[in-house]
TrEMBL record:
Assigned keywords, A-Z: Heme, Iron, Membrane, Metal-binding, Monooxygenase, Oxidoreductase, Transmembrane, Transmembrane helix
Transmembrane feature ranges: none
Keyword Oxidoreductase tagged: yes
Name by which UniProt lists this protein: Cytochrome P450 monooxygenase
GO MF, one annotated term: monooxygenase activity
Protein family according to the UniProt entry: Belongs to the cytochrome P450 family.
Subcellular location(s) per record: Membrane
Pfam family, one: p450
GO biological process: verruculogen biosynthetic process
Annotated GO CC locations: membrane
InterPro entries the record matches: Cyt_P450, Cyt_P450_CS, Cyt_P450_E_grp-I, Cyt_P450_sf, Cytochrome_P450_monoxygenase
Gene3D superfamilies, sorted: Cytochrome P450
Annotated source species: Aspergillus tubingensis (strain CBS 134.48)
Record PANTHER family: CYTOCHROME P450, CYTOCHROME P450 MONOOXYGENASE ATNE-RELATED
Length: 530
């Protein structure tokens, strides 16, 4: 047989195999009955592509609007948009039916993973119990003075020096990032990087964003990491950013450990006796059931996750809340009036913020924050889970074992069955029932921090930072959008496609967490001494 015939036979065989694979995926696969785009049914590359574009959350919403509650988003994945699925997949009782999907393995920091990236089992439970001890309400109360310092530095950075003056435009995507990175690095490591005050480390939020673009694509198509040439070509900047960030965290952990031992490097950032922080809590914490603690490698992984998750997502939530308040003056005025009446006559020292039971009583402010988290969730795409061998039933639909499932957060947060006028910012929806159980329905699927045993351990800390920051800004000052082209940054663009056209929506670009631009705001300082 000639070489030409051999090549033709090989090509014919390969073609038959591809056709057989296509026929199987479209017509014979256990998920063939579920609707979805043809490319999504054929390749994981569909999800990877939209993750690379940063519009996966919008694409999932669009597909659910077109096809209904069940959408086949990848060959072996079904995404579901309803309350039954949310609780079947993420609640505590779901622990017996699902584990985190294999996609999480590409997100692990270091060689041993973290509480976030571990899929399940004994190690995940052990780590979670230890971290929950370090982030307990008692531990968080001890963080209040340090949170206050950074929030006041943020306020002083954005507010003009004298009352009555209107400050220069400030990019909240940047300044909120500086605030939360400073805050989390202090809470975790007792380190003072001072992004709010100097430029030296202001590259860090951008480094995290660049790294997350690659990681978000790998979460849908992990095989790309094995194609080293492809990975290096398409994600060169992301790989450089990832390595730069990991070096930064390893150095921070090493310096924190040295300070605990009384050893300080010449360029140590905080050469004093370390205060109690999350690092020391993690180092001392033990699993209450087994008495086990963290290894050195696990400390690096958990610290990395806490800094990224605690800074990136919270900064997005603060920026989104400020955007929606600036864009909805009636809500701004009600929130400001509530805060200023509750704290009327209070004089704040240079390192004081609004806090305590009075802050917790600001229900309208909390509704404004929840509505911002609903409209623009920092993690708006899909937290995927793999169904265990026993299968999973959602409503009357059975999902076999081995299938990846998820409830796309942005999609369910904009479902008209649970939220009337879902693309309208209306904080009252969390406070005023319309007589049909609307508040209860809204709460039923509100899930910005996930649920159950795999939910966000830093939820209460995040809310505390959000309430403290926004309330203190409203008490000390006022703000509005900058004029001209800067007033459009962060908004949708009229005529744009696939959900990018909504001008009243704070547009996020989904790459593990929501990356953002703007809003550009101008601040003025109130005279609170009068």
């Amino acid at each position: 047989m000639s070489i030409q015939n051999i090549l033709l036979a090989a090509a014919g065989g390969a073609t038959l195999l591809v056709l057989a694979r296509i026929i199987y995926l479209l017509f014979l696969h256990p998920l063939a009955k579920f609707p979805g785009p043809i490319w999504a049914r054929l390749t994981d590359g569909y999800g990877a592509y939209h993750s690379w574009l940063g519009d996966a959350h919008l694409d999932m919403w669009r597909l659910h609007e077109k096809h209904g509650d069940f959408v086949r988003y990848m060959p072996n994945s079904v995404f579901i948009r309803n309350a039954d699925a949310l609780h079947a997949i993420y609640s505590t009782k779901a622990y017996a039916s699902v584990v985190k999907s294999p996609h999480y393995q590409v997100l692990q920091a270091g060689s041993v993973g973290s509480t976030f990236s571990l899929r399940g089992g004994h190690d995940h439970l052990r780590r979670r119990r230890i971290v929950s001890t370090a982030l307990s309400e008692k531990a968080q109360r001890g963080m209040d003075p340090r949170i206050a310092v950074h929030v006041r530095k943020f306020c002083e950075a954005v507010l003009p020096a004298r009352s009555g003056e209107l400050g220069e435009p400030m990019n909240m995507a940047e300044w909120c990032g500086y605030l939360t990175f400073d805050l989390m690095s202090d809470l975790v490591f007792s380190a003072s990087y001072n992004l709010l005050g100097r430029e030296k480390f202001r590259y860090m939020p951008e480094v995290i964003d660049k790294s997350n673009v690659r990681m978000s694509v790998l979460a849908y198509m992990p095989i790309i990491a094995a194609w080293r040439a492809v990975d290096a070509i398409f994600f060169r900047d992301a790989l450089i950013a990832r390595n730069r960030f990991l070096r930064f965290v390893v150095r921070a952990v090493r310096e924190r450990a040295n300070r605990a031992l009384g050893k300080w490097a010449p360029d140590a950032l905080d050469p004093c006796k370390p205060r109690d922080d999350i690092y020391s809590s993690l180092a001392k914490a033990r699993d209450p059931d087994t008495g086990e603690g963290f290894t050195a490698s696990e400390m690096v992984s958990e610290s990395t996750t806490l800094v990224v998750a605690g800074s990136d997502t919270t900064s997005t939530a603060i920026a989104a809340t400020l955007f929606y308040l600036a864009d909805n003056r009636y809500a701004y005025e009600k929130a400001a009036k509530e805060v200023r009446e509750v704290f009327a006559g209070k004089t704040l020292g240079p390192e004081e913020v609004l806090s305590g039971p009075e802050l917790s009583s600001c229900s309208y402010l909390r509704a404004c924050i929840d509505e911002a988290l609903r409209m623009s969730p920092p993690n708006g795409a899909a937290l995927t889970r793999e169904v265990l061998p026993g299968g999973l039933t959602v409503g009357d639909v059975y999902i076999p074992g081995g299938v990846t499932v998820a409830v796309p957060l942005y999609a369910i947060h904009h479902d008209e069955r649970y939220y009337v006028d879902p693309f309208t910012y209306r904080p009252e929806r969390w406070l005023e029932d319309d007589g049909t159980g609307s508040v209860k329905r809204a709460r039923l699927v509100f899930n910005p921090f996930s649920l159950g045993m795999r939910g966000c351990l830093g939820r209460s800390l995040a809310y505390h930072e959000l309430m403290t920051t926004v309330a203190t800004v409203l008490y000390l000052g006022d703000f509005k959008f900058a004029e001209g082209p800067m007033s459009k940054v962060g908004r949708g663009v009229p005529g744009a496609e696939h959900g990018r056209h909504r001008e009243n929506e704070y547009q996020l670009h989904e790459h593990i967490t929501g990356q953002k631009h703007g809003p550009w705001l101008r601040f003025s300082r109130r005279d609170i001494s009068a």
